[in-house]
Amino acid sequence: MPPVKMSGDGRKAKNPKQTISRLLGYLGQYKKTMIVVIICILLSALAQTMSSKSLGYLVDDYVKPLLTQANPDYTPLIKFLCGMACIYLVGMVSSFLYNFLMVRVAQGTQKTIRDEMFTHMQTLPIRYFDTHPVGDTMSRYTNDIDTLRQMISQSIPQCISSVATLIVVFVAMLVTSPILTGVMCITVFGIIMVTKFVAGRSGRYFIGQQKALGALNGYVEEMIHGQRVIKVFCHEEISKAEFDELNETLRKNAFKAGAYANVMGPVNNNLGYIQYAILAIVGGIIAIASQESLLSLGSLLSFLILSRSFNQPISQVSNQINSIVMALAGAERIFELMDEEPEADDGYVTLVNCHIAEDGTITECAERTGHWAWKHPHKADGTITYAELKGDITMHEVDFGYVPEKTVLHDVTLYASPGQKLAFVGATGAGKTTITNLINRFYDIADGKIRYDNININKIHKPDLRRSLGIVLQDTNLFTGTVMENIRYGRLDATDEECISAAKTANAHDFITRLPHGYDTMLTGNGSQLSQGQRQLIAIARAAVADPPVMILDEATSSIDTRTEALVQRGMDALMQGRTTFVIAHRLSTVMNSDCIMVLENGRIIERGSHDDLIAEKGTYYQLYTGAFELE
Prior knowledge:
This protein is of the alpha/beta class. The protein is built from 18 helices and 16 strands.
């Protein structure tokens, strides 16, 4: 099998600008909502600035005059305070509204990306899943998408709000006191430089954190599935040591990322206090020296409050930078999956149901008839021809390797006539399963030809090719659902009666009826409540209900006891009747009645013939059968 790639295996990160551009493309689906959000953000920023500015007017124009009046009239003050209350109300409603809308945008974008990821994942070749850990792929669906949600719902509106606030507040401060504004710009420059230094350090570790998290999830998923093996071989201590190593890598990255992120807030706050003190001292000197002609006490109060309003967005942006960097790292991992090349399929020959007349005329039909035909459109003249699906499969001088530098099949040639049963025997790694993978076109051959009813399989549309093949794998996969639903997975339009008939064919009916709810028993966790043999019987029933013209049985009875095997074998023989069948087996008793047995060694067919012929040759098969040596 091809080597497995772990997350962060040296591949270069994508251009952050390109990642941001793609994310903005998703947000573009919510243009109207985003316009409303921006308007609300601007209103919130204006309300915040006006409320700060109004405090200066409150002191200079309303509070100070009241101090000199013998009979103060509070009516103007009350009206002014009501106006300020309206400003605060507008700001509060605007802030609530844009946050509410951004949550909606974030969840909608999250759903769209997750849908696209899953849809694209269905188009990926088997090679991708053979070379990428399941847990790491799952981490992209969970952790990485969640960081995107946080960025869209919190970081982006916070940054937009902060930028809008900075602009509006800066203009207000400039109008209030150009001198103090100049002093503040000098101090702000220092704050920005410190923020840039800290954010740069934390961003690097946040990217490492996401990659380490993906690797850790992959390992945990693997260990959960392998708990029985771990306990049987007393591998607990080694597993814990390996987990500790991965966990320590995650801890180091998360610690350093979190340390820099947590330091940033207090540092900015303390620098803000220093700035506030400097502005208060300078502003007080200006107000006293000019006897409030250049700067009144109310204006100084407004400016100091505005300065806090100016620093607060800087602190907020600096805090959000970490979330943005982490989200962009997660987005890159998501887009890595979405940019994987889908499985190529240039086939144009399709599989259709048909009626076959006595004179051999083939008529395409929609209903299932038990007869299939290859529908072959001819580009030259636009005509369509039909050829009956017979199950004639040939391989001619086929070479193949999972990676170009290592060939695992050498010059493989075989002929499977319609209705024949072909068996492959040989040691583990000899290339038996690889041959069936090539017939399915899970992988494409490097050299040679594979023909199906004299049609090059490269010309057959992959879904139609695979629909014509029934497969029972050595590793069974049952899905969450009832026993009936798992059997019906082989053919979704199968009736309950057809599913039960298939279960009887596979000799699974008896044990199914003994389950707590029979065919309605719910299976979870890959059918963990069933024995391995029972799970494999359901897998055989699933293939039986599909009723395909060609069967591939990859160690289909390897997990069944000898007594059950005899029962299943009779059902399998009935299932294989009239079908071209490829059988992979270590138990030679299951392949003795095959029309042709091929012995593989190091990716080559070294012997072929019937059981009697191979026994007569007294070669490798004879030695295996007589126990001179055993398959490894």
